[in-house]
Amino acid sequence: MKLLIIAGPPSGGKTAVIRQVIKNLPEGSLPAFLKIDVVHATEDQELAEEFDIPVKKIYSGDVCPDHMGILVLEDALRWAESLSRNILIIESAGLCLRCTPYTTYSLGIAVVSAVSGTNSPLKMAPLLALADVAVVTKTDLVSQAEKEVFRESIRKVVPKIDIVETNAIQGTGLRYLLRRIADHPDIGPDQIMLRGAPPLGVCTVCIGKKEIGWKNHFGVIRPLDMPEPLYRGD
Amino acid sequence: MTEQFTLTIQSGKNRLGEQEGFENIEIKPGNTLSIVGPTGSGKTALINDIETLAQGDTVTGRRILINGEEPPESFVREPAFKPIAMITQNTRCLADLSVKEFLLMHIRARKPGREDLLEETIALANTFTGEAISLNSRMSGLSGGQTRSLMIADALVIGDTPILLLDEIENAGIFKDRVIQSLQGGNKAVILVTHDPYLALTADRRIVMKNGGVASVIEATGQEQHLIEDLALIEDRLHQIREKLRQGAAFSSTSSKVLMTPTGQGLQLNRV
Question: Is the Cβ–Cβ distance between B87 and A144 less than 8 Å?
């Protein structure tokens, strides 16, 4: 089984990239798809109808979606395996961009749009830094110079990252991503681990407690004049 | 690489699924080609195919070869090796940077270590535009014409590639004649999408688009020379009127005669 983890901000073109990937997978590939979102997503149904592949969706509700993704990933692999699938594609919700949902053995793909501003790669540094490939979408909407400056901005964050530029609606330029996927090895025998430690604020805010002020919360909390967060609770 | 090369466009299919009206188009340094056709006929898609060095992976299925072969991956993926500069129709730049930061980042991508090109680029851009661009302006605050002028100067100075693609440079109110003069230097292959009759006719070859594909390729045989000369005079007159208008002139019916007199200072357009 191959594992592809696709992350990036909302409306950056993740699903358009996934569509092209599924359409152009090497012969013999049997993909399954898992979408993780907070409150609303229709990608799973769209992909199921378009490609007739098994799909699953999970809404994280009050919990951080990347946190949720990490918890369900192992079950999702079992699910795909039980259906005799050989490639699992996971699409993250793409919210605060501080998390790095990529794991060992997976191919980590960060999808960012060329129209998201030159400094956006800096703002989503962890999401890019631990990815294997940065796919830059919507390159047809900017000038060549701007596209190249955006690329330079990604290089500033991760000098060696593999950058693939595309108009994902048409699939232009994705041949390099598809080659990378084809060459990517299956999951090996060791325990699958996260590549980085995400800043998961596991606290009572995460589970929907709305009061402001640290005195009203448990878990990892932080008063204003304290230099480091601290853990409050059992 | 810059001295000797041939760029080949191998035909694909139009929107109706029909093979395009050519087999191969070969383009060498110094050649100029215009691309004409109604809106939606696939002009921009054609230069996009060239810019991305398509290998059958776009809707048209065209392949672009360099020196008869599939270009090395670095030509496609590394701006520093890319032999193609393209000036798109975009008249907005979304980059949240100053002009100086933008150009320096582009120099780093295209010509590392050549920070000296900064001044040259901005100086050239300011010959194309009416209101000068300053290095401290924000990219997102430039006008359409300023953005276009800067992108053309950027392609010529920082890109400085053997192949230059231009998408409708006549728009956005920039000094077209000066742009054309700048393009003529340096033995480049110039491919331009245009709705401008003069620019279209003065190219060596004219690619005619229809239904998303190339319908035909017309070679300049010299038979259109008379028309080109007529157009040059019309261009000259239009240029004078446009500039007077832009300077705030008002016209009376008797002044039209003055405007019809060639001044000899208008366009000095040679063959593009």
Answer: yes
| A70-101 confidence digits (pLDDT tens) | 888 899 999 999 999 999 999 988 777 777 78
Burial of A93: CB neighbours in 10 Å, binned 0-12, 13-18, 19+: buried
| Assigned CATH class of A2-183 | alpha beta
List, for residues A147-172, the tens digit of each pLDDT value: 999 999 999 999 999 999 999 988 88
DSSP classification of residue A103: B
User: Domain ranges in chain A?
Assistant: 2-183, 201-234
pLDDT in tens, B145-204: 899 899 999 999 999 999 999 988 776 566 777 777 777 777 889 999 999 898 899 899
Cβ pair B68, B6 in contact under 8 A: yes
Sort out which chain B residues have CB atoms less than 8 A from A145's CB and list them. 102, 106, 151, 154-155, 158-159
Angle at Cα A189 formed by Cα A185 and Cα A191, nearest 5°? 110
pTM (2 d.p.): 0.83
Q: Is the pLDDT of residue B264 over 70?
A: no
**Alpha carbon distance A216, A233 (integer Å):** 12
> Are A146 and B57 a contacting pair at CB < 8 A?
no
Instruction: For A193-221, write each residue's pLDDT tens digit.
Output: 988 877 666 667 767 777 888 888 887 77
Q: What domains are defined for chain B?
A: 1-83+161-221 (3.40.50.300), 91-159 (no CATH)
Scanning A175-234 for CB atoms below 8 A from B yields 175-176
A144–B94 C-beta distance less than 8 A: no
A10 interface with B at CB cutoff 8 Å: no
CA distances from A204 to A70, A71, A212 (A): 19, 18, 11
Chain B residues 81-140 with a CB less than 8 Å from chain A: 85-88, 90, 93-97, 102, 105-106, 108-110
Taking only residues 165 to 224 of chain B, the set having a beta carbon closer than 8 angstroms to any beta carbon of chain A reads: none
Residues in B 228-267 with any Cβ partner in A closer than 8 A: none
- Complex ipTM tops 0.90: no
Helices (H), chain A: 14-23, 43-51, 65-82, 120-123, 125-129, 144-157, 175-183
Nearest CA in chain B to A145: B106
User: Largest alpha-carbon pair distance within chain A?
Assistant: 59
What does A144-175 look like in DSSP terms, one character per residue?
HHHHHHHHHHHHHH-TT-EEEE-BTTTTBTTH
